[in-house]
Amino acid sequence: MTFLNAALLFGAAALSIPIIIHLLNRSRFRVVQWGAMHLLAPVVRTNRKRIQIEQIILLMIRALIPLLLAILMAVPVLTHMNVFVDFIIVPVLVLLCIGAASLAASAAWRWGLGAVAAVGLAYIVASCFGWTLVDDKPISTLARDAKTSMAVVLDNSYSMEAGSADSNALHDAKQAGDQVIARLPRGSEVAVRLAAGGVVSSAHSATVNLSGAAGDVTKLEGGYGSSRMADTLDEASAALASMKHAAKRELIVVSDFQKIDWAGDNAAALARVAETIEQIKPTPSVTLFRVGQPVKNNVAVLSVDVSRRIVGVGQQVTLRGNLQNFGDTSYPDQRVHLHVNGVLEDTKEVSLPAGQDAQVLFQYEFVKPGSHVLNVSVETDALKADNKFTLVVPVWDKLPVLLVDGDPRSEPLQSETSYLQIALRPFGLAKEKLTDLIETKTVPVSAFDAASLTGRRVVVLANVAKLTAAQVEMLKTYVSEGNAAMVFLGNQVDAGWYNAAMHESGKGLLPTRLSDVVGAGATWDDASAILEQRYNDPALELFNDPRNGSLADGKVRTWYKLDESDASAPGVSVTARLDTGDALLVEKKIGRGRVLLCATTCDDLWTTLPVKPVYVPLMQRLVTHLAAGSDPPRNLSVGEPIVAFVPRSAVGRRAAVLTPAGERHEVEVRKRGLRGVVQWDDTDRPGVYTIEAPKSEPIHFAVMSERDESDLTLLSDDELEETARTLGASVVESWEAYRTLDSERRHGRSIRWEVFAVVLALLFGELFFQQWFSRRRA
Amino acid sequence: MPDITEFLNPRDLQQVANLQVLARLVVEGFTSGLHRSPHKGFSVEFKQHRQYVPGDDLRSLDWKVFGKTDRFYIREYEEETNLRATLLVDCSGSMNYGADKPGKDGVSKLHYASRAAACLAYLMLQQADSVGLVTFDQKIRRYIPPRSRASHLKILLDEMEQCTPGGESELGHVFHDLAPKLHRRGLVVVFSDCFCDVAELMRALAHFRHAKHEVIVFQIWDRDELDFPFKQWTRFDSMEVVGDHHMVDPAHLREAYLENLARFRGELEQGCHRHRIDLVPMTTDQPYAEALAQYLALRRKRT
C-alpha cells in the first residue's frame, strides 16, 4: 500500500483524541453515596465484563474514525493482494468477531468468536513482520477501465529507420505507440516524448485526447538525429509525476534498444533515471517495448573535414571524409560521392573492410564566393540517414590585408614586413599556380591613409614608431566597424607615445600598456621561446596537434614586457605567453573589431620565428582568425541554435528560414550590437537550413547529428534484461505481449471511497452500538 | 424537647388537621373492616380470669363465677384504647440518601420517613389511640411502647429527632425480634426503604400477620433510586458497608438497573399482596402529608 499524500498521515495522531477524551471522562468521575446498593451491585457484577468489552469496542471505533480519516486524506492506493488481505480484510473480520462475541448470547459462541479474533490478531501481528499466507501478487484492479496516466517515450532516432520504408523499426514503433495509446481507457491522460527531438504536438503536454494523440503518433516522420534517451526519460517521468490519475501510472519506452543508447555512459545515466522514477509514488510501471529487427550492415560517413579555416575563391581545398563500416561485410570498392550545391563533382572508390574505417580525400576549388553546401555520400545501404554528411563552407573572394611598414628597405628581406609578406602570400610570391587567399599591400607610415585602408579586412602595424593623430582616429573608426588590426613592436617603437595615444588608460586600441624592453642586449643563447601549452584560442588550436609544428621552435630574444594589469578588462585576453611567463600575444575586442598586440617583432631582429616553418601557418591562422571575426559557425550539431549575421539595415524586417523538412518559417531580424541577427532554435532535425534575409545572399547551415548511432548493434537479450532490472521494467516485444502484461499488472487501486465508506459505516456503527449497549438487557 | 410545630411545618400540620375527621374514620376502619369492631366499647375485650387479691376493685369481680364456684375471680380486660399502633422507622445507612443532594434542600429518606411517621402519630394521638415507636438498623435501637397520652407525642418526636442514620438494613431479623414484644394485636406501620432480602422480609412480615397485627409498609424512595438519572462516570459508595464501591459509567447500566428495580418491586408487591399487607411507595419529592392523605383516602374507599 502506498499513499499519495503521505504527509497527511500525521493526522493519524488524531486517534489519540477519543482515547484522551475517554481517559478524561474516567478521571472526572463524581462520587455518589448510594443506598440502593443491593439493586446496583448485582447489575454491576453481571455487566462489568460486558461493559468493559463494549467500551473497548466503542473506543476502538472512535479511535478508528480519526485514523481512517487521516488515511483517507493521505489517499491510499492498494497495490498488493497480501496487504489488502492482511491489513484490511483480516482486521475487519477480527473487529466483527469481537463485536459479535460481545453480543453473543451463549458462552460457547462468545469463546469461539473470541478465539477466532485472537487468531486473527496474531496473524496480523505476524504479517507485520512479513509472514503472510497470501501471495504478494499485485492486485488486479476491479475495474479494467481504471483511468491511467501514461507517458510514452518514442525513439525516433535515425537508427530506427534502418531497413525499408515500410518495415523499419520506426514504422513498428509508431504502430506500437498508436495501439498502446488508442486502447487506453477513456479519460486517461497521455504524454508523448520523442527521444531524438521533435514534438507530437497534440500530446506533448499531457492530453486526454487519446485518438488525436494516437493519430499524431502514426503521422510521425523520421529524419531526426540520435536519441538523448536519459534526458527524454527524465522529461517523461517529470511529465508523469504531474499527471492526475495517480492510481495507475505507466511509462512505456518504444525503442530498438541500440547498445550505444543504453549501455556504457548511458547506463549510468539510466540508473539515475531509475531513481527519479522510483521517487514517484506510487511507482509507475515501466515497460520496455522492443520494436524492429536487427540490421547488420551499415556504412556511415562519420565526418568531413576541410583543410582550411577560411576558404577563398580559386583556392584548392582538401576535403577529408571519414568513413566507417559498422557491419561484418567488406566493401572492397565502396563508391564515395562529393556533391557541391547538389551537383555531383567527384566520385572516389575506397576499400572498406568489415568493421574498419577509411578516409577519402577530395580536392576541390571553389569558383564562386558565397555559401556552399557540400555532401559526401556513400552508395545507399539499409540505413540512409548516415550515408551522407553535409558541410557548409563559406567561400570568400579575397582577404585583403594592409601592411604598414615602420622600417621599409629596398634590400630583399631587410624590410620590417618582408617575412610577414612571404608568410601571408607564400604561393603568389613563389609564382606557384596555387592561389593565395590573402592579398597584401605594403605601405610606409606616411602613406597610411583612408584610401589605402579601403576594402582591407586586416591592417598590420609593423615596428611603427608613431602615428599622427588623424591616423589613430582613422584606425579607431576602422576597427570599430568590425575590422581587425595587428600591432608588432620593435626597436623603433616610441613606448611613451603608444601608451599615451594608443592605450589611453584602457580606452584606446592597445590591449595593454607597454613597459620596458626585456633582453635588449642578450645573446641568442639566453633567448626565450613561446610556452608550449594547450591553446584555447581558435587561432592557435591548430598547434595543439604536434604534427602541425611547434610554436616553441622559434626563439624570442627581445620583447616588450606588457603590463598585464589591464589583462582582466572585458574583451582582453592573453592568447600566448613566453616561457618566462610574459605575455606575447594579447587580444582586445573593440566593438565588432579586434586588435592583436604582439610583444616582439615580425622580422628576424628580435626573434627567430620568421625563419622557422611554423611562422607561415601561425601568421596565416592569426590573420584569418582576425578576419573571420566573430562570424557564427555554419556547421552545427543537432539542437544548437542557428545564428546568422545580416546587415544592420535589415533589422525589423522578416527573414525566412527553410528547414530540412521543407517548411518555411518567418522570423524577425533582431538588432544585436551593430548588426542584425537572425536566430532559429528548433534544430532537432539534421540537414541543411537556409536563412534568406533581406539585403544578403542566402546563408546555409548544416546541422548534423552525432554518428554514434550508426553502430547498429542492439542490446543482447541479457543486456536488455539487465537494463529492465535497473529501471524496474518489463520487456515486451509485441502488442499482444504488452496486452497480457498490462492486464496482469493493472493493479494499484485507490481505496479512497472504500475507506470513506468504512468511515461512514463506523460513524453509524458507533451510534448503533452506543444505543444498543445502553439498551440491551442485562 | 421538640414541639410538633418545630417538627412538622405549619402548612403540613394544617393539612393533617384537616384530615382528622377523615382519618378517624379511616383509622377506625383499619380494624373494623378486617377484625372485630372496636365499637364494642370501652374495655370490652376479655383477657383472662385471675384470683381476687385484696385491694382489687370489687367492680371487676365476676359474680357469675362466684355463683358457680364460690370463689372470687377478677375479670381482666384489654386496655382501654381501641387501637395500638407501633411505628417502625428504619434508621439504617441507606435511609440517609438524599441528605447531601444539592438543590432539593437535602431531604433524606429518613427525614421524610420521620415526618410522615410524626404526622401519623400526631393524627392517632389526637384521636386517643396509643402509638409506639421502634427505631432500628440491623438491630432494634429503641423501643417506645404505645401510649395514648397526648404528651407521648413529644417523646416520639424527640426520639425521631435524635435518630441518626447508620448501620445496615436487616429488616427480617429485626422484625422477628420485635414480633414477640408486641403483645397485643395492633397496627404495625413500617417506614423503610425495604433494602434487604425480599424473602426474609416477607417471612418477618408474615410473622406480624401471624400475630394478627395489621401491617402497613410505607416504602420510602428517593426519585434517583427510581429513575437512575446519572450520566457521567460515577463511583457509587455504599452507605451501609464501608469500602464497598463501584466505579461505573451509569448510562450503560441504567436499563439493567431499572430492570432489577422493577423485579425487586414486583417481588415485594407480590409478597405483600399475598400476606394482605398494604405496601405504599412514597418518594421524597412528594409532600408526605399529601401522600399520607392519598393513601388514607384510598383505604377509606376500600373499606
Task: Briefly characterize the structure.
The complex is a heterodimer of chains A (778) and B (303). Chain A is of the alpha/beta class and 778 residues long.
Salient structural properties:
heterodimer; A: 778 residues; alpha/beta; Rossmann fold; Immunoglobulin-like; 7-stranded mixed sheet; 18 helices; 31% helix; B: 303 residues; 2 domains; 6-stranded mixed sheet; two-stranded antiparallel sheet; 20% strand; elongated
Provide structural commentary.
The complex is a heterodimer of chains A (778) and B (303). Helices cover 31% and strands 26% of the residues of chain A. Chain A is α/β, with parallel strands linked by helices. Chain A has five domains: 162 residues, no CATH class; 180 residues, Rossmann fold; 91 residues, Immunoglobulin-like, CATH 2.60.40.10; 230 residues, Rossmann fold (3-Layer(aba) Sandwich), CATH 3.40.50; 70 residues, Immunoglobulin-like. In chain A, the strands form nine sheets. Chain A has a seven-stranded mixed sheet with strand order 17-16-18-19-26-25-24. In chain A, helix 1 runs antiparallel to helix 2. The model of chain A has no long low-confidence stretch (mean pLDDT 82). Chain B has two domains: 254 residues, Rossmann fold (3-Layer(aba) Sandwich), CATH 3.40.50.410; 34 residues, no CATH class. With 303 residues, chain B is an alpha/beta fold. In chain B, the strands form three sheets. Chain B has a six-stranded mixed sheet, with helices on both faces. In chain B, strands 1-2 form a two-stranded antiparallel sheet. A two-stranded antiparallel sheet of chain B has the order 8-9. Chain B is elongated, with a radius of gyration of 22 Å. About 7% of the residues of chain B have low confidence. The longest helix of chain B is centred in the last third of the chain and has 25 residues. Helix content of chain B is 42%, strand content 20%.
